[in-house]
Amino acid sequence: MKIVFVGAGSTVFVKNLVGDLFVTEGVPADLEIALYDIDPVRSEESRLVAEALTTNFNQGRASVKTFVGVENRSAALEGAAIVIFTVQVGGYKPATVSDFEIPKKYGIRQTIGDTLGIGGIFRGLRTIPVIDAMIEEMHHVAPNAILLNYTNPMAIVTGAALDRWPGRTVGLCHSVQVCAPHLLRDLGMEAHDLRWSIAGINHMAWLLEIRDGKRDLYPEIKRRAAEKNRAALSGDADRHPDMVRYEIMKHFGYYTTESSEHAAEYTPYWIKNSAPERIERFNIPLDEYPRRCEEQISAWEEQRVALADTGQIAHDRSVEYAADIVAAYATDLPSRIHGNVRNDGSIPNLPQDAVVEVPVMVDGNGLHRVPVEPLPPQCAALNRTNINVQLLTISAARELRRERVYQAAMLDPVTSSELPPEEIISMCDELFEAHRAYLPEYR
């Protein structure tokens, strides 16, 4: 079985996914792993990591081969059973830095900027042409491959991929599988038979049900969360990282899957120039993503040196779903995951063409969506505010119309609450200029 990593320069992520393949039951040992990237240095680092994992966890039975440069992408993809897309177009520098610094001139502050907001819009616009070109090659050299998208903005990139590779594309994010355990741990609660149900959209999926066996845990969760936020807001306790999510749960009734720093960007209530004290009050870490990038670069440099010195590499099974999908596809033993797929009725009260995050069954025949009940109306309504931006961004990339980009930004919850239309247009035009090397010509 051939597994291709496109964007293999994401070395830490490749390390986690390749390591998972070698420690997951049902994954064939004699995998053919192809690492593709445009950066020869990062590709070589990923090759060293993958080969060290092969030696330490696979007895060297899997093969690892690197492919560098756009001209070699088709060769990397040829014969693939699984294609894993982990691309950051334009990199941290200069592209992501521009996504933060240009909006900042207009008073738009971001925390992560990779999923929604002005940063998410332009990251999506940069990424869609790349995944489109890759899929065009897959039609010729890997017509039966399953495409696993790990690239943000998840809903935007996955939605675009589904236009070209329907039925065999799923977007994957670990926010679902860590949601319920994180919540209980943060509130000092335990469950001996934890059961949960989650559905919605990526990074704003809703923890609809959480039980210990048959016992509903939500009443105690809400009581403890309200008390924890009350104490933090009154100064009786330290501020904590989950304050925004607890407030959303307080007002909308359900806990969301992604962190408070993300959630603060998806709703218009927190990052406000008119109320800057709310940023500190609710412990919102502005410019968090650039900080994390710098920390990850530094941490990887330490790992790289250690790997070069010893040839040894450690790995513990991650929570990512990729290895589970490979095992289910290889063995035809069904596995249940949560994935991002075209709605098509999976959540009845969300738009049919939206990308939703719902249960998905995987077996030897591929991917099978599992429909769920309609969301609580207030949850669906909040999801739609994000879906509007996602669908318009995909439309902009398909039509190459700046007007669609302006409209997506004008409907973004944070941007629209801070800027008038003419300033939004000006900001978008500056970003178009900054990202000209990565974008086709928009009319």
Describe this structure in words.
This protein is an alpha/beta fold. It has helices at about 10-25, 40-55, 75, 90-105, 115-140, 155-165, 175-185, 220-235, 245-250, 260-265, 275-280, 290-310, 320-330, 375-400, 400-410, 415-420, 420-435; strands at about 1-5, 30-35, 65-70, 80-85, 145-150, 170, 195-200, 205-210, 215, 255, 335-340, 355-365, 365-370. The longest helix is centred in the first third of the chain and has 25 residues, at about 115-140. The radius of gyration is 22 Å and the shape is globular.
Strand order of the largest sheet: 3-2-1-4-5-6
Topology as H/E string? EHEHEHEHHEHEHEEEHHEHHHHEEEHHHH
Q: Would you tell me the structural class of the helices and strands? A: alpha/beta
Domain module tally: 2
What is the fold named in CATH at topology level of the largest domain? LDH C-terminal domain-like
Structure annotation, total helices: 17
The separation of the N and C termini measures: 43 Å
CATH class of the largest domain: Alpha Beta
Shape label = globular
Question: What is the number of E strands?
Answer: 13
Relative strand content: 15-25%
Do you know the CATH architecture of the largest domain? Alpha-Beta Complex
**Global mean pLDDT:** 95
Uncertain runs: none
Q: What is the CA-based Rg, rounded?
A: 22 Å
| CATH H-level superfamily of the largest domain | AglA-like glucosidase
User: In which range does the helix fraction lie?
Assistant: 40-55%
